[in-house]
Amino acid sequence: MQSFLQKIILNNTVLDYLILLGVVLLILLLKHIISTYIANLFFGLFHKASWNLGRETFINLVRGPLHVFLILLVVFLALDKLYFPTAFDFKIHRIPFKQIVDSAANAIVIIAFIWLLLRLLDVVALILAQKAQLTHRISDNQIVVFFKDFFKVIIIFIGVLLVIRFAFYKNIFPLLTGFGIAGAALALSARESLENLIASFIIFFDKPFYAGDVVKVQNITGTVERIGLRSTRIRTDQKTYVTVPNKQMVDTIVDNLTLRTQRRAFINLELSALTSHDALKEVINSIKNILSGNKDIENFSVVLTDISQNSFVVQVEYFTGAVEMDKFNRARQSTNLAIIELIENMKIKLAGKETEVIVTSGDKHAHP
Length: 368
Fold this sequence. Notes:
By secondary structure, the chain is α+β, with helices and mostly antiparallel strands. It has helices at residues 2-5, 14-46, 55-79, 97-133, 138-166, 172-189, 191-206, 246-251, 277-292, 325-345; strands at residues 8-9, 12-13, 91-92, 95-96, 214-217, 220-227, 231-236, 241-245, 254-256, 262-272, 297-307, 311-321.
């Protein structure tokens, strides 16, 4: 038995292979317990910030990547204790097979580790999304998604660099220099896109408007449906879908109509110049009573502002609360109808252009 265990196969004894097999079987049997224990340790770091994130949910998110990472790590550490067989000492395209195996092993471990980091990033994003739900702002959810994708790109980029460094044994500093030069060239060639990207960060942090707000920018009025990395999408009041570059949303004047405290209505009432003094006073007082009787109107003014040759101008200005547009239009319509009824009942005429038509009869007989 002892001789069998010491028998050498591919530069390693049978005992070495049995130890390797035992380690692999042991980690396969204990992977669930070990990964759950490590996941619980991670949960202890996050539970204060993730009061709504259950322990089971957290463990299920990170246990899969932990399984793979632990198994690969233990297997490769165990394989490293064996001697590389001389039978496999050959080259493929002038590259030693041993170096190819080492590079593949390092790359697989790095990829498994990056996968684990990405899953932890998903957990952090889930925690932040729960907090964003408490703000009742759609834009907060978009910020979480935006930065989750942004940091995922950074982690994947770092993972690629690690694979290049530890799997292919290349110096990454010249690559970083090359990336910097290429990035500068791309930045110059895509200056407008870069400006829009920077503007998106300004919008996210400065928060002049949120998704769901009604805004007016240049000649466009509508509801912000999405704030992207390059542009902002607005659903106009004509139900069209407009894409506005973020740079314009930052550089131009944006009127956030959702943040206004009141809605304004204005009537320029031109009454006939034949209207008497007492009738004018009665009209003004009656319009004030109409406005004060409307519960949707918060404040108003009714003023005789101008006297001309053909009319008396009464300006009616009133404000409602920041109600929906349909409710505001109903209040404005009821006010207009009440003023029309008042003028009709008082038999007051509106000022208008009077045209005098003179009809004359010409001579029937023409004189030479």
